[in-house]
Amino acid sequence: MTIGAVLDALKPDFPDVTISKIRFLEAEGLVTPERTASGYRTFSDDDVARLRYILTAQRDRFWPLKVIRESLDALDRGLAPADPGADALRPQAPSPQTDPDVPTAASLARSRALRLTRAELGAAAGLDDATLEALETFGLVRSDASGHFGEAALTIAHTAASLAAYGIEPRHLRPFRTAADREIGLVQQVVRPHRGKPGSQTGKSDPTPEVLRLCIALHTALVKSGLEQA
Fold it and tell me: Considering the entire predicted model, what is its pTM?
């Protein structure tokens, strides 16, 4: 939008706003419209929303430009605007969102009765015998007492096959097994005193799925945090 179109959009809610006012806010660095090759300002919908935020803060909250600038910086860094009527008017850190990469406690508690032979597991994941043997050697897939492999082993085998395309071999995956065993040990240590007791957070006697979900969520967040800082 041109600056004139922006003025027309803002006038119904802010009758005192002027083109000079918009230019002043731009000069203060609170809004940064694009410029055409000929030097004319062009405002996006986000720019107009930003102007509405500024004008509302001045009219309803009497914020000085310093406070508005700090609040805009907070919004630019991902904080959430305060809800109307909230005691804390400045932007607040948002509540953590449910990570779709983390399984729910209910899904962790479910156990599908899948039992694959070694040959079936290799064929399903497209792994040759040597690679499957390496996965077993490094403890990445483990059979049960009857020599069968479950649903988790199928997922591990498929994932290992996909990672092989990037040159990642089973021996490179051993740290994942070690880390998983440590996490499992921690979960077992935590939940052992609570098993069989009523009134757990999940409403069931065994809190293992919920504690495991929280550990997986923490692990996933730590990995994502590390990648963001890499």
Answer: 0.55
